[in-house]
UniProtKB/TrEMBL annotation:
One term of GO molecular function: sequence-specific DNA binding
Coiled coil: none
PANTHER family on file: ARAC-FAMILY TRANSCRIPTIONAL REGULATOR, TRANSCRIPTIONAL REGULATORY PROTEIN
Keyword Oxidoreductase: no
PROSITE patterns hit by this protein: HTH_ARAC_FAMILY_1 (PS00041), HTH_ARAC_FAMILY_2 (PS01124)
Protein name, UniProt field: Transcriptional regulator, AraC family protein
Record domain HTH araC/xylS-type: where: 205-303
UniProt entry keywords in alphabetical sequence: DNA-binding, Transcription, Transcription regulation
Parts of the chain that traverse the membrane: none
InterPro entries (alphabetical): Homeodomain-like_sf, HTH_AraC, HTH_AraC-typ_CS, Tscrpt_reg_HTH_AraC_N
Length: 311
């Protein structure tokens, strides 16, 4: 899904607001990489050069770029966004991300806010659910146009980086406004679906939670369908609508990403890593690992330990 062209309205304050946001991110993330902040659920990202593709698991969050651009692949769908757009993941999704525009003089700068489904549900209850524009659940990843109102709310949150003692009182107010602006946006109904009790989208979010908790176990669609009160066929259809992959493909990505983490951070060999994430056959583990990451586990591990890029 390629990003559509965006035209800045006349006399817009967006450039000024984005410049201020960039200065805050630049100040509190002076080095490339991911920087946690003293404000819970707020993370900063910086890159001074374009990078190779990185496979990660996006948790429910909104990412707003102040400078540069990024590409995200969900299955075979491409999402490209920059300072004119924001990206929302409404459920946990295995994706491939790549910084597409960044230089040492103009680094990629992004602020990420993790989303709390409970908080969204409370806001939907009080402010009303956005009216769905389409029937049924749709992708759990979407782009929206950055508005002045959303950016001002994000800036109120970013300014608290300088006074973290104020964050416990003031950050929840800024976060609540950010959620409100997201829900009022063009695609806010997609976010509202996840928080709507007994909706198909919320049930798929429950399936994802179950898969994350039980990804090392053999997958039984019938068992999972009973857990969320859906038929197996309905579960499969709606799961693919939200995640762009089948439950089995999703489970494989969870397993292989965890195996890669084990290989990199724990003192385990390839066979042990595969066994720990649920593979009984080392050869099957090797084949699927290579299919996802492009190289066999042992070779990939050596490259990672030598400081190579994660692809």
């Amino acid at each position: 899904m390629a990003m559509t062209a965006w035209k800045q309205p006349p006399n817009s304050k967006l450039p000024e607001l984005l410049a201020e946001l960039a200065s805050w991110i630049n100040r509190f993330s002076p080095e490339d990489g991911t920087t946690p902040t003293e404000i819970p659920h707020v993370t900063l990202h910086r890159a001074s050069r374009t990078g190779e593709p990185l496979r990660v698991l996006y948790q429910p969050s909104v990412c707003l770029i102040a400078q540069g651009s990024k590409q995200v692949m969900l299955s075979d769908e491409l999402y490209t966004y920059d300072a004119s757009t924001y990206l929302v993941a409404s459920v946990d999704l295995p994706v491939t991300g790549q910084v597409a525009q960044a230089t040492p003089k103009a680094p990629y700068l992004c602020i990420q806010l993790d989303l709390d489904p409970v908080e969204i549900a409370d806001l939907v209850l009080k402010a009303g659910a956005p009216k769905p524009k389409q029937q049924g659940p749709h992708r759990g990843l979407f782009l929206g146009q950055t508005s002045k109102e959303l950016l001002e709310a994000v800036l109120r949150l970013a300014r608290l980086l300088e006074t973290p003692e104020d964050a416990p009182t003031l950050a929840p107010l800024a976060i609540r406004e950010i959620l409100y602006r997201l829900l009022k946006g063009e695609h806010g109904w997609r976010l509202g679906q996840i928080a709507t009790e007994n909706s198909q989208a919320q049930r798929i979010a429950q399936v994802i939670g179950w898969l994350k908790a039980h990804f090392t176990e053999p997958l039984s669609i019938e068992k999972v369908a009973r857990e969320v009160h859906m038929s197996p066929s309905s579960l499969h259809h709606h799961f693919k609508a939200v995640t762009a992959m089948s439950p089995l493909q999703y489970q494989k990505q969870l397993r292989l990403q965890e195996a890669r983490r084990l290989l990199l951070s724990a003192d385990v060999d390839v066979a042990t890593a595969g066994f720990r994430v649920g593979y009984e056959s080392p050869s099957q583990f090797g084949r699927e690992y290579r299919r996802l990451f492009g190289t066999p586990p042992g070779k990939d591990l050596r490259r990672l330990r030598e400081g190579g890029a994660i692809g």
